[in-house]
């Protein structure tokens, strides 16, 4: 049998292509830096402390319902790694609203998740968590549609079981290497059998009290649906003030609330928790995270045993001020309640007469 030059060329090409394919299939991405630190790559997700933005979509300066000064993209850029939000059903569309969409409408969940996806695509070495307060008990399938539209469903981590002890979560490195580096929690209606990447919060995480109006931030279990001794836990470290009987974010004390040490500080509450449970909190929800000049990230770094050494300064406290009665928030939605703090008392007095139920900031 005579083999032509063409035949041998085809054989060699086939061998090269086979070797290339085998090499590609054998190659696995190995993260060397995870959430900014090489030391965290081998650390379990359940053994890392993350800074979270409470009501991360509720952005505005001197706004009655605002808990943050900067949009989600800036929050992530500065180091926020848990994004908490309230979801409401508005005529079949999931909107991010503060207690009521008449009070503060932060735009659609799909638009918000689109911003998260854009940032995560540009930052492939970071694990990010979402905590969705399912205010209207929206079914998981409706969230799934939105996640798919935003392109985040394929990036979401699917746990091996509906509930996982804190000690059994995968490492940050393995989450990054697998491409499943978005961890999404849902407060109610989670259904592992239908949408397994929407993880039930309270069988996996317990929380401390919220709506705190004094500087005594304890570390007692306030909400859970499981064995708190084996769960991850979240501290609600944001200070409110009572105005006309309603709690509202106290930005004037944010520097001390977010501080590394001192009465009512984030650092002090973390120390209280560590002494009480012999472990640090997994998530720390804060308002106006940039107050303190990065102190909230310093607290997290200390808890994680790493050094907080940002390459660029975080955003300045306060954001951009405005005295108008309307403004555009982070997602381009209109917020009609942008008012000066001196007007809050009178406004809340009127609000109390027309709103049914209690004001809630969680």
TrEMBL record:
Keywords: Signal. Gene3D superfamilies: Phosphatidylinositol (PI) phosphodiesterase (3.20.20.190). It comes from the Eukaryota. One of its GO terms (biological process) is lipid metabolic process. GO terms for molecular function: phosphoric diester hydrolase activity. Pfam families: PI-PLC_X. This is PLC-like phosphodiesterase.
